[in-house]
Amino acid sequence: MSLEQDVAAARRAVDALEQACGPLTRRFGDTVDSRRLKIDVARLRDDLNLLCGSARGVEVVGTRAYDPVMWDDGYDGEVSTPGRSLR
Questions:
Q1: φ, ψ at 46 (rounded to 5°)
Q2: Position 68 in a domain
Q3: Tens-digit pLDDT profile for the chain (87 aa)?
Q4: How far is CA 27 from the centre of its chain?
Q5: Fewer CB within a 10 Å sphere, N or C end of the chain?
Q6: Which residues constitute the domain of residue 24?
Q7: Is residue 69 part of a domain?
Q8: Total domains in the fold of the chain
Q9: How many angstroms separate the CA atoms of 78 and 86, rounded?
Q10: Distance of alpha carbon 21 from alpha carbon 38, whole angstroms
């Protein structure tokens, strides 16, 4: 399967899990465990989005996808340090 097909299958699985957990969370009401289950499902969705790059841009180099942060050196030349001046 292609990456797009794998991502789509994973998203469908998370959707199905959310639908399956819905009746349980309604049955148990607003309990700690019920809230945790909802949060866990939402976290799965968020993690999938982060992994697959839909939450931020992903550059493709060769056959692998890399997060743009990987190419960042962490230095912002526009920001000056207190007590120092740009020359």
A1: -65, -45
A2: no
A3: 788 888 889 999 999 999 999 999 999 999 999 999 999 999 999 999 888 865 444 454 455 565 655 556 666 556 565 666 555
A4: 29
A5: C
A6: 3-53
A7: no
A8: 1
A9: 9
A10: 8
